[in-house]
UniProtKB/TrEMBL annotation:
One of its GO terms (cellular component) is SCF ubiquitin ligase complex. SUPFAM superfamilies: RNI-like. It comes from the Eukaryota. This is F-box and leucine rich repeat protein 6. One of its GO terms (biological process) is SCF-dependent proteasomal ubiquitin-dependent protein catabolic process.
Length: 352
């Protein structure tokens, strides 16, 4: 390390169960240009270790400790030492996460741009209470917020909420999860009330979100919208109307759209996807990925959207009950998508 890693900028250590402290001590002595440190499934990370690195590596601004045994005091000490130069942080949710968030709420890292909290193998049933407005004040420069497969609730809730400043620089919000989600229109509105520049919104599994709630969001240039429901639709009453509110608002910018598992009716989906055949100025829609798995989309609607979107490179029609037998699969690449169109135009229109 002293002879070969003097220019090292990014370091990842995986499955280190021992000797971690002496190795990181050597890093602090030999790698002054370190900017990014990832510790995955590592043990023995002490507050002294991380603080030592923060002081010895003046360019260190990103820390990933997902799936590692790290005490909250170690992460908090690191954040307080790094301070305003901190840019990116990845965490695994545990009962100690609240203490780390508390440091962020206290504005110790006002330039933080990326924050990701995900669940580990040992899932905790206690939901994370997220002080949305306080986080907006503590991390005003946040560009990416990911709460992955995580049960969380906004705090406080109800009429006592004072509107926060929002995340004016937010470009990506991911709240995807595989279990029951408590995310509501009200919670989403509080998160995105001041985020006009949002480009990616991933709400897979968030079955409580409605088309009306999405339509009221301030972002006008959304490029990726993921609303797929996987394995949860059988237990929920899904909206049958409202999908046109989404497509007509963002048809001029959407590149990826995922409606898999949603319960919109045939007519509602027809009206929604018709938005891509009427883009302003005669230009072609930007849509290149469309996931309609498990929906009630019809053959005529699919034909229309393929014809209107020459850049469509991915189309998922698996388990679409209203489509002819043999066409219910995923199509990847321009040739496969065009083959699907030919079959729909020339083959029998009967559904199976």
């Amino acid at each position: 390390m002293p002879s070969r890693f003097s220019q090292l900028q990014k370091l990842t250590l995986i499955h280190w169960k021992s000797q971690l402290h002496p190795v990181l001590k050597l890093v602090s002595e030999s790698c002054p240009r370190l900017t990014f440190l990832k510790l995955s499934d590592c043990h023995g990370v002490t507050p002294d270790t991380l603080t030592m690195l923060a002081r010895a590596c003046p360019q260190l601004h990103s820390l990933d400790v997902q799936h590692s045994m790290v005490e909250s005091t170690a992460v908090v000490s690191f954040l307080e030492e790094v301070g305003p130069r901190m840019r990116k942080l990845w965490l695994t949710y545990s009962p100690q996460t609240a203490a780390i968030l508390g440091a962020l709420l206290g504005s110790c890292c006002p330039q933080l741009q990326v924050l990701e909290v995900s669940t580990g193998i040992s899932r905790y049933s206690t939901p994370l209470q997220l002080p949305v407005e306080a986080l907006q004040k503590g991390c005003p420069q946040l560009q990416v917020l990911r709460l992955l497969n995580l049960m969380w609730l906004p705090k406080p809730s109800g009429r006592a909420v004072t509107p926060g400043p929002g995340f004016p620089s937010l470009q990506e919000l991911c709240l995807a999860g595989s279990t029951c989600s408590f995310v509501s229109d009200e919670a989403l509105s509080r998160l995105l009330r001041g985020s006009p520049n949002l480009r990616l919104l991933d709400l897979r599994g968030c079955a409580r979100i409605t088309p009306v709630g999405l339509h009221d969001l301030p972002c006008q240039e959304l490029q990726q919208l993921h609303l797929g429901l996987y394995g949860t639709s059988d237990r929920l009453t899904l909206a049958k109307e409202g999908s046109p509110l989404l497509t007509w608002k963002w048809c001029h910018t959407l590149r990826e759209l995922d409606l898999s598992g949603q319960g919109f009716s045939e007519k509602d989906l027809e009206q929604a996807l018709a938005a891509f055949s009427g883009t302003p100025g005669g230009s072609h829609p930007a849509l290149c990925s469309l996931n309609l798995r498990g929906t009630r989309v019809t053959a005529s609607t699919v034909s229309s959207v393929i014809s209107s979107c020459p850049g469509l490179l991915y189309l998922n029609l698996e388990s679409c009950r209203c489509l002819p037998r043999g066409l219910k699969r995923a199509y990847r690449g321009l040739e496969e998508v065009q083959w699907c169109l030919e079959q729909l135009l020339t083959g029998p229109a009967s559904a199976s």
